[in-house]
Design goal:
Blueprint (H helix, E strand, L loop, with lengths): L12 H6 L6 E5 L6 H18 L4 E7 L10 H9 L2 H6 E3 L4 E3 L4 E7 H9 L4 E6 L7 H10 L6 E6 L7 H8 L5 E5 L10 H13 L1 H9 L12 H9 L3 E2 L9 E6 L6 E9 L2 E10 L4 H11 L3 E6 L14 H7 L5 E3 L5 H11 L3 E4 L4 H9 L2 E4 L4 E6 L5 H13 L11 H4 L5
Parallel strand pairs: 1-7, 1-8, 2-5, 2-6, 6-7, 9-15, 10-13, 12-15, 13-14
Antiparallel strand pairs: 3-4, 10-11, 11-12, 16-17
Helix pairs in contact: 2-3, 5-6, 8-9, 13-15
Length: 429
Amino acid sequence: MSQTDTVEINLPPKIVDLFQGEARYRCAYGGRGSAKTRSFALMTAVRGYQWGMEGKQGQILCAREHLNSLDESSLEEVKSAIRGVKFLSDYYELGEKYIRSKDGRINYVFAGLRRNLDSIKSKARIILCWVDEAEGVSDSAWQKLIPTVREDDSEIWVTWNPETKHSATHRRFRVHPPTDMKIDEINWRDNPFFPKVLENERLEDKKNRPDLYDHIWEGQMLIHAEGAYFAVEMREATHNERITNVPYDRSLGVVTAWDLGVGDSTSIWFAQMVGAEVRLIDYYESSGVGLDHYVALLNSKGYVYESHVLPHDVRVRELGSGKSRLETLGALGVRPITIAPQLMVDDGIQSVRSMLPRCWFDEEKCERGIDAIRQYRRDYDDKGMTWRGRPLHDWTSHCADALRYLAVGYKPTSSSWGEPLRRNLQGIV
């Protein structure tokens, strides 16, 4: 194919618009059946071809948050797209585990951000990065990845199915969007090539899975994830109006429960115990900061603390300092400390299930924590089409783990007493 030839490529009109003109970021979000993934896979090859014809050299990085093997990557999707267009199949060489241009100018790289981000940073001349299934990409991953794509005229493409307004991807590209960006919501009705087999599946989900339909097909935020551990308990909390305004009772101590992240998020729940009731009055999480940040945060709240429940691995000594995080927190004035017992994750999950019917959540201060607990779910094996016997590790994990440590680690004291919230909500000051 010469540079003067014209070839028609069939794409949904909204996606065509995304690729008109210049932009640093090109983003598409929405539900299933929109042809986002297939279209973006095709356009990576088209853009690589264009750059190759211009004499430009570099790598096209196709990334996902989790990628344990090439079987979980976009490799086959890109191959299929290339095979369907003659001038692309003439230009690229497709191997079992690679895609590269026959002129040696363009090479594809497939990587997972969670495990391979440091190695990605060392890769030379990334001219295009496409992040698919980007909902779960952490803010720290974005902070490291974006400066890595730094060649002149390089681009970053992002596709995802939204789950929560608290995700780093949502905040970065929809709440605080970059100026040099094209973005659009694309759903099944925007795809003129929407196949009949998917239409049948869509109607089946609408009939039999109404709780998930809007998320799966209409690109709406997820309320309860499929496979969620605490879906029943959180629905009951909503129905019974236990997600409401839960004020701090100055006559009672506050118990904190922590999950300490290593290289990612640290989560802290703030609870007050009144008889059998567990009042979750506050929640906080952050990443990329030291323990002194969290101690300062605790002090800024103005709460009187009864106990701080920490995970069992807090005793492990860090290589850099030679001190454990238990020792560091103690030196910073965090006391008294309770170490949660080391139990099987399933046992901890069951303990949370038993505790949740007694929980009240402050709707505003615990908003992110509530969303995380609603969506904390089992890992799913797409290839085997079965639920794995472990939780999915994503943005919900640290929040759920912190609640698990509260459920298994808190030991009530004589100060944990007061009027039940359901009888005395208005009287708390």
